[in-house]
Design goal:
This protein is of the alpha+beta class and 162 residues long. It is built from four helices and seven strands, in the order αβαββαββαββ. 40% of the residues lie in helices and 31% in strands. Strands 1, 2, 3, 4, 5, 6 and 7 form a seven-stranded mixed β-sheet that branches. It is globular and about 50 Å long.
């Protein structure tokens, strides 16, 4: 029992190194430069990042995000294990709260010794994040948060009728 708790604490500490949540828009250069500086000497042949930017469309002023961290942590841990099995790591930063047009709300990264592994992993990771991560999106219109239901995906096993 004690070992299990220690392992859980270690996993939480490790996860904070790879998964970062920020209030408001992301400081893109700070995050991506920190990842590069941290991992450039780790013998990864590929360090790939994806930066998501809020688009100015549908008369929105921005987006707002709510995150359910326990499910996000489990989802992220599953991806980290998948990456580790390929001798790679995944990195992620996401916003909580309001992010206005032309600002970043999401950054994903992959470090891998192999270019092909990194390219495939970043694609799969970003697409699965969009489909599965427990992050609720709201449009900001006239300073009001409006749930973006038409652009949301139900989380498997959640809800009253699951």
């Amino acid at each position: 029992m004690i070992m299990s708790n220690i392992e859980n604490i270690d996993r939480q500490v490790d996860r904070k190194e790879f998964l970062q949540l920020f209030d408001g828009s992301l400081p893109v250069e700070q995050i991506t430069n920190a990842w590069y500086d941290k991992y450039k000497n780790s013998n990864y042949g590929a360090i790939i990042t994806f930066v998501g930017v809020v688009r100015d469309e549908n008369k929105i002023d921005g987006l707002s995000f709510d995150i359910y961290e326990p499910i996000l942590n489990n989802w992220f841990d599953t991806w980290q294990k998948k990456a580790n099995d390929l001798n790679a790591i995944v990195l992620m930063a996401h916003s909580r709260g309001d992010v206005f047009n032309h600002e970043s709300s999401y950054i994903a990264g992959v470090c891998s010794p192999k270019r092909r592994v990194a390219l495939e992993l970043i694609d799969e990771f970003v697409e699965d994040f969009k489909a599965q991560a427990p992050i609720w999106k709201y449009d900001i219109i006239d300073n009001k948060r409006i749930y973006a239901q038409d652009r949301s995906t139900a989380i498997k096993g959640s809800g009253l009728l699951s």
